[in-house]
Amino acid sequence: MRRILAVTSIAAASLAVGLGTTVGPAHAALPTGFSDVTIANPSSNPLSSPTGITPLDGGRALITEKAGAVRVLLPDGTIAAADALSLSVCANSEEGLLGAAVDPAFAVNGYVYLYYTRNAGNCNSSTGRYNRVSRFTMSGNTINPASELILLDNMNIPAGNHNGGDLHVGQDGYLYVTVGDGGTNPRLTGPSAAQDLSLLNGKIMRITTSGGVPADNPLVGVPNAQSCATTGIAAATTAKCTEIYDWGLRNPFRFAFDPNTGSTHFFINDVGQGTWEEVDEGGKGLNYGWDIREGFCANGSTTNCGSTPAGYTDPLTSYNHNIGCTFITAGAFVPNGIWPAEYDNSYLFADGGCGKMWQRTAAGAVDYNTPFAQTSGTIVAMAFVTQGSSTSLFYVTNGSSQLHQISYAPAAVTSGALAYTSLASANRVYDTRDGTGVAAGAVRAGSTRSVDLKIADSSVKAALVNLTMVQPIGQGFLQAWQAGTQQPATSNINAGNGEFVANASIVPVDSTGKILIYSSVTTDVVIDVMGTFKQIAASDPGGRFTTLSPARLVDTRVAASATNAFTRADAGQTSTVNAPVTGKLGVPSGVSAVALIVTAVSNPGTVAGYVTAYAHGAPIPPTSNLNQNGDGDVRPNLVVVPVGADGSVDFKMFNTSHVVVDVAGYFSNTTSSSGLYHTIAPTRIVDTRTPLGFGSLGLGATQSIDPGAGVPNTARAVSENVTMTQTLGGGFLTAFPADEARPTASNGNATAPGQDRASLALTKVGAAGAGSISYYSSGGTDLVVDITGYFDS
User: Fold this and answer.
1) 591-613 burial string, b = 16+ CB within 10 Å, else e?
2) Rounded CA separation 209/110 (Å)
3) What was the pLDDT predicted at 7?
4) How many CA atoms lie within 13 A of 363 on its CB side?
5) Which DSSP category does 646 fall into?
6) Comparing C-alpha atoms, which of 763, 770, 793 is closest to residue 506?
7) What does the pLDDT average to over 664-687?
8) What pLDDT, on a 0 to 100 scale, did the predictor assign at position 770?
9) 628-632 long-range Cβ contacts below 8 angstroms, 24+ apart
10) Residues 6+ apart with CB under 8 A from 627
């Protein structure tokens, strides 16, 4: 489903306590600033013994129930009355529908994965029930039962317990599955199933999402290696099952992957027997020691806890049953930046017996005497889910059959008057493709990431960044905002499946120079810092902005002339265009940087390319400002770039046919009383898909609106993200002051019906009062406008 930001998500943010929720003091005090909300069940079809919760796209989540139903948590915080799927399962003892996972490419393939105990003829017989993992296809809020593809099957559970039952797709694209030891050896003889490499029990499995075996699994290529995906106990006892990734586990009921990195990093919660519960760190080919070891000790011992025997891996942390807690269950990594800094790189885990939830800090410390939370009911699973403008920890409890939401109240975005400093060359701080700023690996759909912009100056309160979505898997959007503050109900970029899309944004930063990003789809992300906004005294010199009515400087589609001055040099796939800027269209000499709307134009039949702007005479930056996707694509972006000593700017075009440049303003290092910047919380003033603002823009239509209460009447200009959505066809959008004639310039472009195109604009504000900014569409479009800040007059 295409969207800029779903209307339902926005509604969820404003109705966080209301529609289907109740707040009550049912739990022990959480740390200051946190709250625990109980999500009410629909009376017609309440939750029944939930076993898991898994984030889904669009602010939704899957909730699995022991008896076989898959439920859907909706973006508004309510639970859909109708089941997404109802499987026939065995549900005795610890059996049932135990876990779910969602494919990273869900936006295009709809794949979900379920772990359940299938009825093989007699749920009361050890030979009449088996655990199975299957892939299904989901559309809307419904999972198609006929789409089942069996990936693992015939996993024996002679005692009906110790099933494991969790599954996740790792950053490496493979499906990881936890399987318990079955309570006893499924062959009813021989060593512990956890140490028997001819059985899948007591292990972590790693397979492809179609059921194949990755070539680098630890037992691939060893003597007697074979696939045991469906063999159960029929495999020879000498076999080495190639699906196995780790072993020596008793009942790894829940495990969790770290969303803060591109690497496949995960922790395992392994349920102990009579003495110890433990958290293990996942890794290729590790043996965690069951049933020889439990916790840091020999099985069942609290005293025989010497050095780790060769070949075994000890846990990260463990706790003894003498603290009144008896079986470890749920776990989740805290997404960095959404809670206070002391929670960054930490892991939460819970015990179903005592209902306590603990934090393992980034340093590896756990205070078992001071839990993070005390829950009611038997907590069995937890996950962080983003709904609207909130990322919260959701957890489900068995027995009491409840869904809870733990949230933190974020800080507000504040800043004084800010002066701009343009970097001599853009600084690439984050690239998930090659590991710049983070371990390489795409940002997963529905997840947040903390990004360090490498800004050491604490007086810097915002940064001009170029955000790029690189080949997202599906159509979606990206958000960026200050770490530790409220997630906005707005977006910064929109991209289609497989596109390269860049958009500049002015984003407030925290005191350490960090921002957060959220992606609605799985995508690689590139972030370049173009300049910074620093808090200064009004009398101090610094980058003040002078806004100009946008005007066309260069268009290489037509011949150079006195009013279209440029030179162009072509060399293979690369062209360099030089354009004089100072002394033209109101830009004086001596400016520190110019604000340009740069549009890349590709001819039909061409391939994807990019454009980089830089001061004439300066080294060519190793970054780009905008991307076009070839075959007639037209893409603009706002570029703030220093000018060369001769007052000109160069544009490097790679695989790009033409460039169009419009002037929007300039920055100068003066002590003028005007032109300083103020950040505000991103505010949506227009969404023509809803009653907000005016109606959609028809062909050749112009509409005007005031920038809103957050912008004073004295503002000279605003920073706004202007998005064309549900376009009627090819055309362009222009934002301009309402008391001036429409200029020959554009902020956004579309090339076909049904596109979503977002562009940052620094727009001059007309006379105070209603309708001070006008928007013109040449081709017809719905329009979304988000105001992010303003410049003093």
Assistant:
1) bbbbbbbbbbbbeeebebbbbbb
2) 12
3) 27
4) 5
5) T
6) 763
7) 94
8) 65
9) 628/500, 628/600, 628/601, 628/602, 628/656, 629/499, 629/500, 629/602, 630/602, 630/606, 630/655, 631/602, 631/604, 631/605, 631/606, 631/607, 632/602, 632/603, 632/604, 632/606, 632/751
10) 468, 500, 501, 502, 600, 608, 609, 610, 635
Selection from 608, 621, 672, 674 nearest residue 651 by Cα:
621
pTM over 0.85: yes
Structure token pair of residue 530: 């173009």
Contact 170, 177 (CB under 8 A): no
Evaluate whether 591 touches 619 at the Cβ level (below 8 Å): no
Quick one: average pLDDT of 318-326? Answer: 97
- Per residue in 142-182, pLDDT (tens digit) is 999 999 999 999 999 999 999 999 999 999 999 999 999 99
Tell me the two tokens of residue 761.
């604009």
Token reading at 359: 């934090």
What does the chain come to in residues?
Answer: 793
Q: How many angstroms separate the CA atoms of 280 and 276, rounded?
A: 12
Higher-pLDDT residue of 771 and 105 is 105
Six-digit token string for 149: 């593809």
DSSP alpha helix (H) spans, 22-169: 106-109
Q: What is the pLDDT of residue 537?
A: 87
Strands 225-226 and 240-241: parallel
What's the token pair of residue 3? 């969207």
